[in-house]
Amino acid sequence: MDFDLLVIGAGSGGLASAKRAARHGAKVGIIEGDRVGGTCVIRGCVPKKLLVYGSEYREILANAASYGWAVGSTGCNSSVLLENVRQEVDRLNGIHIKALANAGVELITGWGQFVDAHTVQVGDQQFTARQIMVAVGGRPQRLTIPGGELGWVSDDLFLQQHLPSSMLIIGAGYIACEFACILQGLGVAVTQVIRGDRILKGFDQELSDSVREGMEELGVTLRFGLQPTAIEQTQSAMVLRCGETALEADVVLQAAGRKAFLEPLALEKAGIAHDGHRISVDAQQRTNVPHIYAVGDVTDRINLTPVAIDEGRAVADALFASGTRTVNHDLVATAVFTQPELASVGLSEEDAKERFGTDAITIHKARFRDMHQALPKRGPRCLLKLVVETSSDRVLGCHMVGSHAAEIIQMGAIALGMGATKADFDRTMALHPSISEEFVTMG
Ligand code: FAD
Question: 328 lies in a domain?
Fold first, then answer.
């Protein structure tokens, strides 16, 4: 056999697993068809967050005068921002390639395809391995409507030289909402087109309503109850048809879903079971073929970078260091980098009431204006919320909309992981003045 472990996909999960396995002394190869780093580094979390920082300057500069700063006329040169983001992505791509070499992992460039359960083909070469890990992630899905091939998907934003004047964004999930805020902040007139009657389904409703208010205040136009039926390109604009309604903008961005990237793998040649959307795995990340594992977005459970990394490392530890740890998929904190930011860990009010009964749950919340907004007298209100099981006093959910929500909820996740009660929160001395002190002072 050529390798002890052969990883297909050098994204968050694959890289973490390959490096950890090599550190344990295994002979490891990793196959990558695109750029090393995967979705998170090349076309996801990292470039997105940099664009979030860039777009936030609009509000920062608008508020500056109330703090006595004369900033003159302002405007964003999006070409400079996009180019700088690309340079940072290139730098990180280089670091990940170097880290593989330093770890002694062999990088194989090209698209991997199974030949059999121990052999993967890349171009005209074949590689054999005792164990194989599928970490191929997902891809943005285009709508299956006439003209569905037109417009951008999320990957395309990061390839642009400059931004258009107006944009229609299809979707209500976190990527659609984050992109709407980024683009609106950078001066693009954004209309977000939503099939249902709310954004950020799956999050606590009150929190997503709060984000919606903030997005509207930012200037994003939200159009609910519209089902896209066709996209057309005219000489001057793109037209999105939603039944009788026709909307126009320079560009249509489709952000209505992602799907595991299974097609090129020829999974059937290795006998790996899948349902066309994802590969099922057990608690050890094992597919139905015992020596073949799958981690990250290709398993379509919690599609977040830290989850993929942890899954990849757990497999490497189990295979090459007698590790027995399984990944805890409960209480995974998550953030939506909209403006205002949302972050959340544990059960939403709706989920808690459904699981335990409405009478068994107590809700504590605080809604207020962040002190930072006192002088400008503008900006979205913060919302902090605790979902508590009344009988045990255990905090089941800790949620926030407002500045630094992700940073704050990361700490809340530790408390919830340790089984904190509302009394534990109340016993904690407040850190004043801060936004998060409300978590320990709310009645
Ligand atoms: P990926 O990172 O997608 O890596 C898979 C790799 O496999 C890719 O490099 C691909 O080219 C390669 N590959 C695929 N098929 C083959 C093949 N046959 N042969 C060889 N190589 C192959 N998560 C967060 O935690 N926080 C965020 O803020 C966040 N923001 C996001 C924003 C956007 C716009 C997007 C799209 C995603 C975001 N995510 C975020 C999700 C996060 O990026 C993914 O959950 C994570 O990257 C999944 O890692 P992975 O290893 O499963 O797959």
Answer: no
**Extended strands (E) in 40-156:** 106-109, 112-116, 119-122, 125-134, 138-140, 152-153
Give the integer Cα–Cα distance in Å for 62 and 376: 9
171 Cβ inside 6 Å of ligand 1: no
Cβ 27 vs Cβ 83: under 8 Å: no
Please confirm, yes or no, whether 432 is among the known catalytic residues.
yes
Q: Please indicate, yes or no, whether residues 285 and 366 belong to a single structural domain of this protein.
A: no
Q: Whose CA is nearest to atom 34 of ligand 1?
A: 44
Note whether residue 334 is domain-resident.
no
Low-confidence ranges of the chain (pLDDT < 70): none
The per-residue pLDDT for range 294-335, each reduced to its tens digit, is 999 999 999 999 999 999 999 999 999 998 989 999 999 999
Cβ of 96 closer than 6 Å to ligand 1, yes or no, is no
d(Cα 70, Cα 55) in Å, to the nearest integer?
Answer: 20
The domain of 279 spans 3-140+259-320
Going from the Cα of 334 to the center of ligand 1, the distance in angstroms, rounded, reads: 16
Cα 330 from Cα 168, distance rounded (Å)? 35
Instruction: List the catalytic residue out of 274, 329, 372, 432.
Output: 432
Q: How many structural domains are present in the chain?
A: 3
* Final residue before a domain boundary, out of 268, 291, 320: 320
User: How many angstroms separate the CA atoms of 316 and 311, rounded?
Assistant: 9
Say whether both 7 and 94 belong to one domain: yes
